[in-house]
Design a protein that fits this description.
By secondary structure, the protein is an alpha/beta fold. Helices cover 47% and strands 9% of the residues. It has a six-stranded parallel β-sheet with strand order 4-5-7-9-10-11. It has a three-stranded parallel β-sheet with strand order 1-2-3, with helices on one face. Strand 2, helix 4 and strand 3 form a beta-alpha-beta unit. The longest helix has 28 residues. The chain is globular. The two termini are 29 Å apart. Bound molecules: 6-deoxy-beta-L-fructofuranose and manganese (II) ion (MN). Manganese (II) ion binds next to loops.
């Protein structure tokens, strides 16, 4: 397996951190043992935790106003995979990449799969794209794609999704994520029921083309690019469609796709209860679909979401197998650094949720002891699990301090030599 960061450099960096880590880890072990928790068992759970990286997150993101590219921007999926492998080499919990088509389209998918294999990476859910018009595309998605009033445009959008399934099969993926921007900007512009009926007609054709072991992830979003109504606007519409389509169809929760203050952890609990939780696009936001770094603003909400996920694991909820993915846009940071940080923050939420005394919580819930119930969650959240995350990385051959090792490697500066900047700034999310 090719490692793009010099392993000796990582080992040297780890040597500087090892003594302090061991002291912190041993101290935490004593604290957890007092609560009847075995730190080694928790560390083993942390070591198998995985969150996929979005290929489109490795380039500098932008907004509709502007995009300010950094140095050494990846120019194609092969360079994006190189950057993803650097993230995984250091944090050891991002072993798969979620590609986006046609942004990541190649002529030879077996060559792409080999390149990923060589870097120790697999492919997670495939993302289709009928929210942009491609240069050679005969029909425009200006007024929608899978829900367009024109049967020809719908057929074009369905065909693209069927192509994505074929490309995904070649890459070893087993899921297709369908997010469409279809909606309206004016009251009266769309007939809501007929528009959703067109969506279901198109989605049934895509569903029918899924290989047996595949899943179809429906991603809801409150608004943007449509600003009056969005066809798959909320989890309710998404789960109704997933139930209508069949057992392979589930609802994917992108944290930024909800109105501020929506109780996302309860939406997650509902989707788990009805076996319709596809997984997540983790990110954070303050206003809209800001695609900010996961856990950067609302780490407690992310922890509460993982409380529901760990509870399902603990109760061995039938059919519980969510896909964890990041979906972020990095406008002012080095994307690799933000993805390293975010992968660790998502893993941190998971490990903190493992420390919740679930039986005590159930007792307080049954006895309506609200304060002790919420304090049981806070007690776990307030534990600094950094030594467990670092020990997990160390034991998996990664970096105790990933950002320190990454900066010490000079990787960004070295790829900047190989990847001449395009110089153009332009605008748009990617
Ligand atoms: C839509 C979305 C979707 C992706 C896109 C890049 O906002 O979250 O998941 O296709 O971002
Ligand atoms: Mn998303």
């Amino acid at each position: 397996m090719t490692k793009l960061i010099n392993s000796d450099l990582v080992a040297a960096q780890n040597d500087k951190q090892l003594q302090a880590l061991q002291a912190d880890y041993d101290h935490l072990a004593v604290q957890l043992a007092r609560r009847g928790v075995d730190i080694v068992a928790i560390t083993e759970r942390a070591k198998v935790f995985q969150v996929a990286v979005p290929s489109w997150g490795t380039g500098t993101g932008g907004t509709r106003f502007a995009r300010f590219p950094g140095i050494g921007e990846p120019r194609n999926i092969f360079e994006k995979l190189q950057d993803c492998s650097v993230i995984n080499q250091l944090v050891c919990c991002t072993g798969s990449v979620s590609p986006h088509f046609p942004w990541d389209k190649v002529d030879d998918f077996s060559e792409l799969r080999e390149a990923a294999d060589d870097l120790g990476l697999a492919f997670d859910a495939i993302n289709s794209n009928t929210f942009q018009d491609q240069p050679s595309q005969p029909l425009s998605y200006k007024y929608g794609s899978l829900t367009h009033t024109s049967e020809a445009v719908r057929a074009q959008a369905v065909a693209h999704n069927l192509e994505c399934i074929e490309w995904g099969k070649a890459l070893g993926s087993t899921a297709l994520t369908v997010w469409i921007g279809d909606g309206s900007n004016f009251a009266g512009q769309s007939h809501f029921q007929r528009q959703l009926e067109r969506y279901l007609e198109s989605a049934r054709t895509i569903y029918a083309a899924l290989p047996d072991e595949w899943s179809l992830f429906l991603e809801h979003k409150m608004f943007e690019p449509a600003f009056y109504s969005t066809v798959i606007q909320d989890w309710g519409t998404s789960v109704l469609c997933a139930m209508e389509l069949g057992e392979k169809a589930k609802s994917l929760v992108d944290l930024g796709h909800h109105a501020p203050n929506v109780n996302i952890e309860m939406i997650v609990a509902r989707l788990i209860q009805f076996g319709k939780l596809a997984g997540f696009h983790f990110n954070d936001s303050k206003y809209g679909d800001d695609d900010l770094d996961s856990g950067s603003l609302h780490p407690y909400q992310q922890f509460l979401i993982f409380n529901e996920l760990v509870d399902a694991e603990y109760r061995q909820q039938p059919g519980f197998n969510p896909a964890y993915m990041l979906d972020q846009s990095h406008n002012v940071t080095d994307p690799i650094e933000s993805l390293i940080n975010s992968a660790e923050e998502v893993q941190r939420s998971y490990v903190k949720a493992l420390l919740i005394d679930r039986e005590a919580l159930y007792g307080f819930q049954e006895s309506n002891d609200a304060l002790m119930a919420t304090n049981t969650l806070k007690a776990a959240f307030n534990i600094d699990v950094s030594p467990i995350l670092a020990m997990a990385r160390l034991q998996l051959g990664g970096a105790i301090a990933p950002l320190t090792s990454y900066r010490a490697s000079g990787y960004r500066q070295s790829v900047a030599q190989q990847r001449p900047s395009t110089g153009e700034s332009g605008s748009g999310i990617v």
